[in-house]
Amino acid sequence: MVNLLSANLLRLRKSPLFWEMSALSFAFGAFMCITRVYERSTYGFSVSLDSVFFGYAMVMGIVMATFIPMFFGTEHSDGTIRNKLAIGHSRVAIYLSGLIVSFGAAVTFYAAYLLACIVVGIPFIGNLDLPASLTAAALCGSLLMAAAFCAIFLSVTMNQSRKATSVVVCLLGTFLLLILAVVINAKLNAPEFIDLYSLDVDGVCTPRIEPNPAYLSGMEREVYRFLYDLLPTGQAIQYSNVAFTSPIRLMGLGAAVSMISAAAGAALFQRKDLR
Questions:
Q1: pLDDT in tens, 143-178
Q2: Cβ(270)–Cβ(91) below 8 Å
Protein backbone atom coordinates (compact mmCIF):
# COMPACT_ATOMS: atom_id res chain seq x y z
CA MET A 1 0.00 0.00 0.00
CA VAL A 2 2.81 2.42 0.89
CA ASN A 3 4.58 1.67 -2.39
CA LEU A 4 1.37 2.23 -4.33
CA LEU A 5 0.79 5.56 -2.63
CA SER A 6 4.37 6.64 -3.27
CA ALA A 7 4.12 5.70 -6.93
CA ASN A 8 0.79 7.53 -7.37
CA LEU A 9 2.06 10.63 -5.56
CA LEU A 10 5.20 10.68 -7.68
CA ARG A 11 3.09 10.39 -10.80
CA LEU A 12 0.83 13.15 -9.48
CA ARG A 13 3.76 15.51 -8.94
CA LYS A 14 4.95 14.86 -12.48
CA SER A 15 1.48 15.26 -14.02
CA PRO A 16 1.04 18.41 -16.15
CA LEU A 17 -2.73 18.00 -15.74
CA PHE A 18 -2.42 18.25 -11.95
CA TRP A 19 -0.37 21.44 -12.06
CA GLU A 20 -2.53 22.97 -14.76
CA MET A 21 -5.71 22.37 -12.76
CA SER A 22 -4.03 23.71 -9.61
CA ALA A 23 -3.09 26.88 -11.52
CA LEU A 24 -6.61 27.17 -12.96
CA SER A 25 -8.09 26.78 -9.47
CA PHE A 26 -5.90 29.63 -8.21
CA ALA A 27 -6.85 31.73 -11.24
CA PHE A 28 -10.53 31.02 -10.66
CA GLY A 29 -10.24 32.21 -7.05
CA ALA A 30 -8.48 35.39 -8.15
CA PHE A 31 -11.10 35.95 -10.87
CA MET A 32 -13.96 35.61 -8.39
CA CYS A 33 -12.38 38.18 -6.08
CA ILE A 34 -11.61 40.62 -8.91
CA THR A 35 -15.19 40.27 -10.13
CA ARG A 36 -16.52 41.30 -6.73
CA VAL A 37 -14.16 44.30 -6.65
CA TYR A 38 -15.37 45.32 -10.11
CA GLU A 39 -19.02 45.04 -9.02
CA ARG A 40 -18.32 47.27 -6.03
CA SER A 41 -16.46 49.93 -8.01
CA THR A 42 -18.84 49.91 -10.99
CA TYR A 43 -22.28 49.39 -9.46
CA GLY A 44 -21.67 50.34 -5.84
CA PHE A 45 -22.58 46.88 -4.56
CA SER A 46 -21.63 45.95 -1.03
CA VAL A 47 -19.31 42.96 -1.33
CA SER A 48 -17.77 40.61 1.19
CA LEU A 49 -15.17 37.88 1.03
CA ASP A 50 -17.88 35.57 2.40
CA SER A 51 -19.55 35.56 -1.03
CA VAL A 52 -16.54 34.02 -2.78
CA PHE A 53 -14.56 32.13 -0.14
CA PHE A 54 -16.46 28.85 -0.56
CA GLY A 55 -17.43 29.37 -4.19
CA TYR A 56 -15.13 26.56 -5.32
CA ALA A 57 -17.63 24.06 -3.92
CA MET A 58 -19.85 24.75 -6.95
CA VAL A 59 -17.18 23.69 -9.45
CA MET A 60 -15.53 20.93 -7.42
CA GLY A 61 -17.69 18.26 -9.06
CA ILE A 62 -16.83 19.42 -12.58
CA VAL A 63 -13.11 19.68 -11.76
CA MET A 64 -12.87 16.19 -10.26
CA ALA A 65 -15.14 14.70 -12.94
CA THR A 66 -12.48 15.83 -15.42
CA PHE A 67 -9.33 15.14 -13.44
CA ILE A 68 -9.99 11.64 -12.04
CA PRO A 69 -10.91 9.94 -15.36
CA MET A 70 -8.07 11.71 -17.16
CA PHE A 71 -5.49 10.86 -14.51
CA PHE A 72 -6.49 7.32 -13.54
CA GLY A 73 -8.08 6.31 -16.85
CA THR A 74 -4.68 5.84 -18.44
CA GLU A 75 -3.91 3.01 -16.00
CA HIS A 76 -6.30 0.79 -17.94
CA SER A 77 -5.07 1.69 -21.42
CA ASP A 78 -1.38 1.54 -20.44
CA GLY A 79 -1.73 -1.78 -18.62
CA THR A 80 -0.51 -0.24 -15.36
CA ILE A 81 -3.17 -1.96 -13.27
CA ARG A 82 -2.27 -5.37 -14.65
CA ASN A 83 1.39 -4.70 -13.89
CA LYS A 84 0.54 -3.77 -10.29
CA LEU A 85 -1.43 -6.97 -9.88
CA ALA A 86 1.39 -9.00 -11.42
CA ILE A 87 3.90 -7.85 -8.82
CA GLY A 88 1.62 -8.79 -5.93
CA HIS A 89 -0.53 -5.75 -5.09
CA SER A 90 -4.16 -6.49 -4.22
CA ARG A 91 -7.06 -4.87 -6.02
CA VAL A 92 -8.30 -3.32 -2.78
CA ALA A 93 -4.90 -1.69 -2.16
CA ILE A 94 -4.80 -0.39 -5.74
CA TYR A 95 -8.29 1.06 -5.38
CA LEU A 96 -7.70 2.64 -1.95
CA SER A 97 -4.41 4.22 -3.03
CA GLY A 98 -6.22 5.78 -5.99
CA LEU A 99 -8.95 7.08 -3.71
CA ILE A 100 -6.47 8.66 -1.29
CA VAL A 101 -4.48 10.32 -4.06
CA SER A 102 -7.61 11.63 -5.80
CA PHE A 103 -8.79 13.16 -2.54
CA GLY A 104 -5.34 14.67 -2.03
CA ALA A 105 -5.60 16.27 -5.47
CA ALA A 106 -9.06 17.66 -4.61
CA VAL A 107 -7.69 19.18 -1.38
CA THR A 108 -4.81 20.73 -3.34
CA PHE A 109 -7.17 22.29 -5.89
CA TYR A 110 -9.36 23.68 -3.12
CA ALA A 111 -6.31 24.99 -1.25
CA ALA A 112 -5.15 26.77 -4.42
CA TYR A 113 -8.53 28.47 -4.71
CA LEU A 114 -8.53 29.50 -1.04
CA LEU A 115 -4.98 30.80 -1.36
CA ALA A 116 -6.10 33.08 -4.18
CA CYS A 117 -8.99 34.32 -2.04
CA ILE A 118 -6.54 35.13 0.75
CA VAL A 119 -3.86 36.71 -1.45
CA VAL A 120 -6.22 38.69 -3.69
CA GLY A 121 -9.43 38.87 -1.70
CA ILE A 122 -8.25 40.08 1.71
CA PRO A 123 -6.23 43.10 0.44
CA PHE A 124 -8.99 44.29 -1.93
CA ILE A 125 -12.21 43.08 -0.27
CA GLY A 126 -11.43 42.52 3.39
CA ASN A 127 -11.50 39.71 5.90
CA LEU A 128 -14.19 37.10 6.33
CA ASP A 129 -17.21 38.22 8.32
CA LEU A 130 -18.37 34.66 9.03
CA PRO A 131 -18.09 33.32 12.57
CA ALA A 132 -15.17 30.93 13.07
CA SER A 133 -17.50 28.03 13.87
CA LEU A 134 -19.49 28.50 10.65
CA THR A 135 -16.29 28.87 8.61
CA ALA A 136 -14.89 25.65 10.08
CA ALA A 137 -18.16 23.80 9.44
CA ALA A 138 -18.29 24.97 5.81
CA LEU A 139 -14.64 24.06 5.24
CA CYS A 140 -14.90 20.59 6.80
CA GLY A 141 -18.19 19.93 5.03
CA SER A 142 -16.77 21.04 1.69
CA LEU A 143 -13.90 18.57 2.07
CA LEU A 144 -16.31 15.73 2.86
CA MET A 145 -18.34 16.76 -0.19
CA ALA A 146 -15.13 16.63 -2.25
CA ALA A 147 -14.45 13.14 -0.87
CA ALA A 148 -17.92 12.07 -2.02
CA PHE A 149 -17.25 13.35 -5.53
CA CYS A 150 -13.87 11.56 -5.58
CA ALA A 151 -15.41 8.28 -4.45
CA ILE A 152 -18.16 8.44 -7.07
CA PHE A 153 -15.89 9.37 -9.97
CA LEU A 154 -13.17 6.88 -9.04
CA SER A 155 -15.74 4.07 -8.90
CA VAL A 156 -16.73 4.94 -12.47
CA THR A 157 -13.14 5.32 -13.69
CA MET A 158 -11.73 2.15 -12.16
CA ASN A 159 -14.59 0.04 -13.51
CA GLN A 160 -14.58 1.52 -17.02
CA SER A 161 -11.70 0.55 -19.30
CA ARG A 162 -12.10 3.46 -21.72
CA LYS A 163 -10.88 6.82 -20.48
CA ALA A 164 -13.05 8.83 -22.87
CA THR A 165 -16.16 7.01 -21.71
CA SER A 166 -15.26 7.65 -18.07
CA VAL A 167 -14.85 11.37 -18.72
CA VAL A 168 -18.20 11.59 -20.50
CA VAL A 169 -20.06 9.58 -17.84
CA CYS A 170 -18.57 11.57 -14.95
CA LEU A 171 -19.15 14.98 -16.51
CA LEU A 172 -22.63 14.16 -17.75
CA GLY A 173 -23.54 12.67 -14.37
CA THR A 174 -22.27 15.80 -12.60
CA PHE A 175 -24.37 18.12 -14.74
CA LEU A 176 -27.46 15.94 -14.32
CA LEU A 177 -27.02 15.87 -10.55
CA LEU A 178 -26.50 19.63 -10.53
CA ILE A 179 -29.70 20.19 -12.50
CA LEU A 180 -31.54 17.86 -10.11
CA ALA A 181 -30.20 19.78 -7.11
CA VAL A 182 -31.25 23.12 -8.63
CA VAL A 183 -34.77 21.80 -9.29
CA ILE A 184 -35.07 20.46 -5.74
CA ASN A 185 -33.77 23.74 -4.33
CA ALA A 186 -36.37 25.67 -6.32
CA LYS A 187 -39.15 23.45 -4.95
CA LEU A 188 -37.90 23.85 -1.38
CA ASN A 189 -37.73 27.62 -1.75
CA ALA A 190 -41.24 27.96 -3.14
CA PRO A 191 -43.23 30.32 -0.87
CA GLU A 192 -46.03 28.94 1.28
CA PHE A 193 -48.41 31.68 0.16
CA ILE A 194 -48.67 33.68 -3.04
CA ASP A 195 -49.97 37.20 -3.61
CA LEU A 196 -52.86 37.48 -6.05
CA TYR A 197 -54.91 40.44 -7.23
CA SER A 198 -58.51 40.59 -8.36
CA LEU A 199 -60.12 43.35 -10.39
CA ASP A 200 -63.81 44.06 -9.77
CA VAL A 201 -66.31 45.61 -12.18
CA ASP A 202 -65.48 49.08 -10.90
CA GLY A 203 -61.83 48.65 -11.76
CA VAL A 204 -60.74 48.37 -8.14
CA CYS A 205 -57.78 46.06 -7.62
CA THR A 206 -58.01 44.01 -4.44
CA PRO A 207 -54.97 42.06 -3.17
CA ARG A 208 -55.40 38.67 -1.56
CA ILE A 209 -53.16 35.89 -0.29
CA GLU A 210 -53.71 32.26 -1.18
CA PRO A 211 -51.85 29.03 -0.38
CA ASN A 212 -49.25 28.12 -2.98
CA PRO A 213 -50.12 24.72 -4.52
CA ALA A 214 -46.41 24.21 -5.33
CA TYR A 215 -45.37 24.56 -1.68
CA LEU A 216 -43.94 21.37 -0.20
CA SER A 217 -45.10 20.39 3.26
CA GLY A 218 -45.11 17.44 5.62
CA MET A 219 -43.37 14.23 4.63
CA GLU A 220 -42.96 15.33 1.01
CA ARG A 221 -40.88 18.29 2.14
CA GLU A 222 -38.75 16.07 4.36
CA VAL A 223 -38.04 13.71 1.46
CA TYR A 224 -37.00 16.57 -0.82
CA ARG A 225 -34.87 18.07 1.96
CA PHE A 226 -33.14 14.73 2.52
CA LEU A 227 -32.40 14.30 -1.20
CA TYR A 228 -31.08 17.86 -1.39
CA ASP A 229 -28.75 17.26 1.56
CA LEU A 230 -27.72 13.83 0.25
CA LEU A 231 -26.70 14.91 -3.26
CA PRO A 232 -23.10 16.17 -3.41
CA THR A 233 -24.33 18.84 -5.84
CA GLY A 234 -27.00 19.90 -3.34
CA GLN A 235 -24.31 20.17 -0.69
CA ALA A 236 -22.19 22.19 -3.14
CA ILE A 237 -24.95 24.79 -3.52
CA GLN A 238 -25.35 25.07 0.25
CA TYR A 239 -21.62 25.31 0.99
CA SER A 240 -20.92 27.82 -1.78
CA ASN A 241 -23.61 30.12 -0.38
CA VAL A 242 -22.80 29.20 3.24
CA ALA A 243 -26.53 28.59 3.59
CA PHE A 244 -27.14 25.48 5.66
CA THR A 245 -28.97 24.87 8.91
CA SER A 246 -27.58 21.50 9.97
CA PRO A 247 -23.83 21.15 9.25
CA ILE A 248 -23.56 17.88 11.21
CA ARG A 249 -26.29 16.33 9.06
CA LEU A 250 -24.60 17.49 5.85
CA MET A 251 -21.20 16.22 6.94
CA GLY A 252 -22.68 12.88 8.00
CA LEU A 253 -24.42 12.43 4.66
CA GLY A 254 -21.26 13.45 2.79
CA ALA A 255 -19.25 10.86 4.70
CA ALA A 256 -21.95 8.24 4.06
CA VAL A 257 -21.95 8.90 0.30
CA SER A 258 -18.15 8.66 0.30
CA MET A 259 -18.04 5.33 2.12
CA ILE A 260 -20.91 3.73 0.20
CA SER A 261 -19.52 4.83 -3.19
CA ALA A 262 -16.01 3.68 -2.28
CA ALA A 263 -17.25 0.31 -1.02
CA ALA A 264 -19.43 -0.24 -4.10
CA GLY A 265 -16.64 0.78 -6.46
CA ALA A 266 -14.09 -1.45 -4.75
CA ALA A 267 -16.51 -4.41 -4.80
CA LEU A 268 -17.11 -3.98 -8.52
CA PHE A 269 -13.39 -3.55 -9.17
CA GLN A 270 -12.74 -6.86 -7.40
CA ARG A 271 -14.84 -8.63 -10.04
CA LYS A 272 -13.76 -6.63 -13.07
CA ASP A 273 -12.10 -8.50 -15.91
CA LEU A 274 -8.81 -6.69 -16.57
CA ARG A 275 -7.71 -8.69 -19.58
A1: 999 999 999 999 999 998 888 999 999 999 999 999
A2: yes
Q: Which long-range contacts (CB under 8 A, 24 or more apart) does 11-14 make?
A: 12/71, 12/101, 12/104, 12/105
Q: Which of 90, 108, 116 is nearest to 150 (CA)?
A: 108
Distance CA 260, CA 195 (A): 44
* All structural domains of the chain with their residue ranges: 2-187+233-271
Contact 143, 110 (CB under 8 A): yes
* Dist. CA 233–CA 236, nearest whole Å: 5
At 14-53, the pLDDT tens digits run 999 999 999 999 999 999 999 999 988 888 778 889 889 9
> H/E/C letters for each residue in 146-207?
HHHHHHHHHHHHHCCCCHHHHHHHHHHHHHHHHHHHHHHHHHHCCCCEEEEEEECCCCCEEE
User: pLDDT tens digits, residue range 195-229?
Assistant: 777 766 566 677 778 888 888 989 999 999 999 99
Beta strands in 81-154 (DSSP E): none
Residue 145 CB coordination number (10 Å) = 29
Whether the pTM exceeds 0.70: the reply is yes
Q: Which residues contact 107 (CB under 8 A, 6 or more apart)?
A: 143, 146
